[in-house]
Structures are given as structure tokens and as C-alpha cells.
Amino acid sequence: MLKINQLNKSYPIGDSSLHVLKGIDLAVEEGEMVAIMGSSGSGKSTLLNIIGMLDEADSGEYILDGLPISNLTEKKAAVYRNKFLGFIFQSFNLINYKNAAENVALPLYYQGIKRKERQEMAMFHLGKVGLADWAGHLPKELSGGQKQRVAIARALAADPKLLLADEPTGALDTKTSHEIMAFIQQLNDEGKTILMVTHEEDIANMCKRIIRLKDGVIMEDVKVKQDRASQYV
């Protein structure tokens, strides 16, 4: 599904540079649910951004679903993101002036899917996250948990190969976090591959594998006995 070899990334700082990722090797199989952990500055967000084609490595190899990802134009990167990836963000990243259904339908618009079919697919995915009745509501009319469910529905709309979640529970209280994680675990149970950045140990333990980064290097990569979120809901 995803293979990374000797990935390096630096950022210029004044006259010098900061080496953020130092020869990362990583493989993720289809159907895995992986947490990436590390303190601030460890490189976890940079790694997720490169996997998400929002940033590009300086050197190394990145292969996604058998396709080499390198030297992409912004247009090509956008096409690949829409084809392969679904994103879930801590801040939800919903468009404030569009209702829930319109937000979910957005990736389908960029895929050239006709309006009627977009609406039907958006309603299907809102139903999947339990929010069909909230389709006409704007983000400001939704709770934090509901916003994240809309964001998950949007991420699922284009049927991505890989779900990337950046601190998906970071802006939520404990109860709502467990509800969202129970849903994300359900998606993984259904076969969706999920890669999640988190700084919370309890959330990481709800994944099946934990990768710990420190100073741009993988210090630990272990499979864990998954803690089921549903027992807390």
C-alpha cells in the first residue's frame, strides 16, 4: 500500500538548514491502522504532509499503491490526492458557508461527478456517520464531534485508498474523542487503511501499530493489542 525508503527532508533556517526527517524507512500494508507519535519537532507532521502530497521530500523514495510519488506538479499532486487519499484534520477544515452535504460533496466535484450523483453520495456518507438529518446545517450549527463526523464523511466520499488523520481528536473532549475513534476503528474493521498522527497515548493504543519518531528518526515501530474505543462510549 505505502512504501518509503530513505526519506529526507530539511527546511532552510537563515543561513543554515534544519534536517527534519533523517532517512525514514516505512512500509504500511493495506488494512493497517497505524499511529505516528512524537514530541513537537519530531517530524511526524512533516512525514504526514509528505505522504499526503502536501509537501515533497528532498530525497528518498515514496511509493503509494504501486505508484512512485515524486516531482509532481501541483495539478498532478491534486489529482493523486483526490484519487488516493482522504484527510481528517484536527481543525475539521470545513467550508463555513457550505452546509454539511455540500462539504461532503466537495471532493466529488473535483472528480467531475455530476451534481445529482454528488448529492446522493454525500447523503449516503452522511448517513454512514449518523448525520443524514443534519445535511442542511452549516458548520457553525454543529458541535465539535458533529463537525469531525462531517469531515470523516468528506474524507470517505471519494473512496480513498488511504485515510490520513492529523490529530483527529485533538479538538474534542474525551467522550467525543472515544466516539470518533470508535467510528474510525469501524472503518478500519471494514478494510480501510488508516495512518494517524496523535500525541495522546490512549488514542495511539486504539490503533494496531505505533511508530515513535524522535528528532526525525523512527525510534520504535511496534504492533500493539488494540484498545477498543467502543468500551468507553
Description:
The protein is 33% helix and 28% strand. The chain contains 7 helices and 10 strands. The chain has helices spanning 44-51, 74-84, 100-110, 115-128, 144-157, 174-189, 201-204, and strands spanning 2-13, 16-28, 33-37, 59-64, 67-68, 85-89, 162-166, 193-197, 209-214, 217-223. A 6-stranded mixed beta sheet has the order 6-7-8-3-9-10, with helices on both faces. β7, α6 (174-189) and β8 (193-197) form a beta-alpha-beta unit. The protein is globular, with a radius of gyration of 18 Å. The two termini are 31 Å apart.
Q: Name the structural class.
A: alpha/beta
Residue stretches low in confidence (pLDDT < 50, at least 5 long) are: none
What kind of sheet is the major sheet? 6 strands, mixed
Can you tell me the overall shape? Answer: globular
- Separation, N- and C-terminal Cα atoms: 31 Å
Percentage of residues in strands: 25-35%
Question: What is the total tally of β strands?
Answer: 10
Average pLDDT level: 91
What is the H-and-E element order?
EEEHEEHEHHHEHEHEE
Rg, rounded, reads 18 Å
